[in-house]
Each structure stands twice: as C-alpha cells, then as structure tokens.
Amino acid sequence: MTTGGIVFFRTTNREATTAFYTDTVGAEVWLEQSGCTILRHGNMLFGLCDGEETEAEGIVTFVYDTDDEVDRMHERVGDAAREDPHENDQYDIYQFFATDPDGRTVEFQTFRHDVSDPL
C-alpha cells in the first residue's frame, strides 16, 4: 500500500528556488540530500534536484481554504505574480498564477465548493 509520493524537478538554481518556496510560499525542508532538497507544504512533497537544465513543465499548485489566504499569498509573492487573483468559473476556483525563480508556473488557489480530503 502506498503512503504518499514525491514529485521531483531538475533545477539549475536550487538555492534561490528553494528559498522562494520556503521563505515566500511557506514550505519547509522535509529532507536535504546531496544535490536534492525535498520540500513539504501541507500534504504535498516535492523535490528540487540539481540538473544541467531546469524542468519547468507542469504546474505546482498550492491549495488554500479561503480567498483571503490566496490574497495574502499574492501579496507575499509580489513581482513573481503574473496576474491578480480572480474567479475561474470553469473549475469553480479562486486563483492566480506566479513564476518561481526557475521559470516554473506556480498556482495558488481555493476551491469554491466542498472538496473531500484526499487523505
């Protein structure tokens, strides 16, 4: 039986990107390994590992309980934000997108409807 998982990304800028996620977003270092930092934010684990090129495909999404929390994150990420927080009727969410120091897309959102806890 699986107890969880980790998504890993290669990075050419591990120090600055780790600092963005810990200092700005509020993730914590879960495990530091040679050439790889694994971060934790709530029930999400993701790793940033040294590489010759940055893997920036996909979106790292942080889910919050309220609009106010999303708005606070918008203030915290500052110039990294690509847009203002807004309603997304297609997915019934309140969200905005930002860019991390590696150029990876980061989303901050809250669901507008009750979502069952996946754990």
Automatic annotation (TrEMBL):
It comes from the Archaea. Residues 2-111 form the VOC domain. Transmembrane segments: none annotated. InterPro entries: Glyas_Bleomycin-R_OHBP_Dase, VOC_core. CDD domains: VOC. This is VOC domain-containing protein. The lineage of its organism: Archaea, Methanobacteriati, Methanobacteriota, Stenosarchaea group, Halobacteria.
